[in-house]
UniProtKB/TrEMBL annotation:
Keywords: Disulfide bond, Membrane, Pathogenesis-related protein, Plant defense, Transmembrane, Transmembrane helix. The chain crosses the membrane at residues 6-24. This is Thaumatin-like protein S3. Pfam families: Thaumatin. InterPro entries: Osmotin/thaumatin-like_sf, Thaumatin, Thaumatin_CS. One of its GO terms (biological process) is defense response. Disulfide bonds join 78-88, 93-99, 156-171.
Length: 183
């Protein structure tokens, strides 16, 4: 076998490895729906966000492969001008429509880590009230066998509380999650 043949075989093997590795490091899609009787302004880090969802409206967010961790939360009582500057009563993120930093408490959070850094397609996720509570929500992975936490107005039995309560779950979700405000 000549040097050119070895080079081509090595390149093909590397290409196959990269395709298989990237398939394992999949992104995720979060389908976010507002069932509240009021408008919820969705925010997310690192994917931005800045969507006003009226009752019954939804928003689909694709989180790309390579995005290891992030969070979503709902903001309430928001008002923004045409340039995207304004404020929210809860969950405000620096007075801008599209967030680049976490919201000010109180915020009920959905937190996630995709592929957990262990290359076995396991995602970790939780609902957190570490920053307080402002909007009831639920999080449901597309895999029906995975744990689906919920945090309602009267209590958050499935929420991560600091310190000492770890409600973080792990699942092979297939990359799809459903977040519902006011479940």
């Amino acid at each position: 076998m000549g040097a050119t043949t070895i080079y081509h075989v090595t390149a093909i093997v590397a290409l196959i490895f990269n395709v298989l590795y990237l398939q394992g490091a999949m992104g995720a899609t979060f389908e976010i729906r507002n069932q509240c009787s009021y408008t919820v302004w969705v925010a997310g880090i690192p994917v931005g966000g800045g969507f006003a969802l009226g009752q019954g409206q939804s928003w689909s967010v694709d989180v790309p492969a390579g995005t290891s961790a992030g969070r979503f939360w709902g903001r309430t009582g928001c008002s923004f001008d045409a340039s995207g500057k304004g404020s929210c009563s809860t969950g405000d993120c620096g007075g801008v429509l599209s967030c680049t930093l976490s919201g000010q408490p109180p915020t009920t959070l959905v937190e996630y880590t995709l592929n957990g850094g262990n290359n076995n397609n396991q995602d970790s996720y939780d609902i957190s009230v570490i920053d307080g509570f402002n909007v009831p929500l639920s999080l449901t992975p597309s895999d029906g066998g995975c744990y689906a936490p919920i945090c309602t107005l009267d209590k958050c039995p499935d929420a991560y509380l600091y310190p000492g309560d770890t409600k973080t779950r792990t699942c092979s979700s297939g990359g799809n999650y459903y977040i519902v405000f006011c479940p």
